[in-house]
Design goal:
By secondary structure, this protein is α+β, with helices and mostly antiparallel strands. It has one domain. Strands 1-2-3-6-5-4 form a 6-stranded antiparallel beta sheet. Strand 4 and strand 5 form a beta hairpin. The chain starts with 9 loop residues before the first strand and ends with a helix. The structure holds zinc ion (2 copies). One zinc ion (ZN) binds next to loops.
């Protein structure tokens, strides 16, 4: 497959345990087939504690999101269909190019890291909420 941005050949690389991605050496972009991003989400191996604390301020990401939304649509490297820009998950502020036909996604350089931080953050948010919930239950029965 060729890079949808600059036409360079994508190279197959192992990402974390057993996930294979196609990466562009020119621009650092990354192609993920259907389901691969979900696999990465489930297997976040890195400790992103430091990055969590150093997440760019909300305004910076909002600006970045607007910039990406204004960029031209890319064509899917796999099936040639025009891809659609979508915010990855509610309020993630991360725009990914998605192919509606083969359901793969294209990530620009740095977006996979941003997504991993987002996954980690949603996980720790969920843990906090659970703690709060059970905490209040315990208080109730005391
Ligand atoms: Zn490229
Ligand atoms: Zn496609």
């Amino acid at each position: 497959m060729d890079c949808p941005k600059d036409g360079a050949k994508l190279q197959t690389k192992a990402y974390e345990s057993d996930i294979e991605v196609d990466q562009c050496a020119e621009c650092g972009g990354m192609w993920l087939d259907e389901g691969e991003l979900e696999k990465i989400q489930k297997s976040t191996e890195h400790d992103y504690g430091d990055e969590l604390r150093e997440m760019p301020p909300f305004a910076t990401r909002a600006y970045e999101m607007a910039r990406q939304q204004a960029a031209a649509d890319l064509c899917c490297p796999k099936c040639g269909q025009e891809m659609t820009k979508k915010e990855y998950a509610y309020a993630s502020q991360i725009i990914v190019d998605t192919c509606l036909s083969c359901r793969g996604v294209w990530l620009d350089r740095g977006e996979i890291e941003a997504l991993e931080v987002f996954f980690e953050r949603s996980k720790s948010n969920a843990a906090e909420i659970r703690k709060g919930f059970f905490g209040s239950l315990l208080g109730f029965f005391r």
